[in-house]
Write a structure and sequence with these properties.
With 209 residues, this protein is of the alpha/beta class. The protein has one domain (2-204): Purple Acid Phosphatase, chain A, domain 2 (4-Layer Sandwich), CATH 3.60.21. 24% of the residues lie in helices and 25% in strands. The chain contains six helices and 13 strands. A hairpin with a 2-residue loop joins strand 11 and strand 12 (183-187). The two termini are 15 Å apart. The mean pLDDT is 94.
Length: 209
């Protein structure tokens, strides 16, 4: 399955210079937050695939201008062609904001999902805005990751953990791809496209896509 992920910065290549072949073959699109709702609606309009999203810490405007045609997977397990996708948006709380959470608040969200997780038998892709704690996250409160994401990955061993929030142009310490145990971690900054099975096999075998 060919998947496009995106986060934090709209791609001029897609928005200003769109041609049909740019989305050719894409079977699923996942947005990890802090993208303009009109941008998401634009991509969804031309894609022949569902566009799923979680909120970033700057996405309060979605309440009044939602991304049309797109589907929020906040606190849900969305199944697409057999893939179980869990969504948990937002960042660590650093100020007043609708999509900011303390570690305790994020853990409460996860606890509420216990029955859904049991029924689904886990999940294949974890989609968040923030990274996990102490794994390519920032040291400041705004960009610090959540420990509960690590706990989820340790317990369920999903194939992929896709996040945004820590822009790759901040520092070389924020790579596009990395691994945590048996999980491939993808920083969705701007946009990235991959094949679900092929990337996993190549990354776990120690080769680049």
């Amino acid at each position: 399955m060919k998947i496009m992920v995106m986060s934090d910065l709209e791609s001029d290549y897609l928005w200003d210079h769109y041609t049909p072949e740019q989305l050719e073959g894409i079977e699923l699109i996942i947005a990890c937050g802090d993208l303009h709702p009109h941008y998401l609606s634009f991509v969804e309009t031309f894609a022949k695939a569902p566009l799923l999203y979680v909120h970033g810490n700057h996405d309060e405007r979605y309440a009044t201008v939602p991304p049309e045609g797109c589907y929020s997977i906040e606190d849900k397990i969305y199944v697409h062609n057999g893939l179980r996708i869990l969504g948990l948006g937002g960042s660590m709380r650093y100020s007043v904001g609708e999509h900011q959470y303390t570690e305790k608040e994020m853990k409460k969200r996860v606890r509420k999902l216990a029955l859904k997780l049991k029924r689904s038998g886990g999940f294949d892709i974890l989609v968040t805005h923030a990274p996990m704690f102490d794994f390519h996250d920032g040291k400041d409160m705004c960009h610090m990751g959540f420990e509960v994401f690590r706990e989820l990955i340790d317990k369920y061993s999903p194939k992929y953990f896709v996040h945004g929030h820590v822009h790759m142009n901040y520092s070389r310490k924020y790579p596009r791809l990395s691994t945590y145990n048996e999980t491939v971690v993808i920083n969705a900054y701007r946009t990235y496209t991959f094949d679900y099975d092929t990337l996993y096999e190549k990354t776990m075998n120690g080769s680049d896509e």
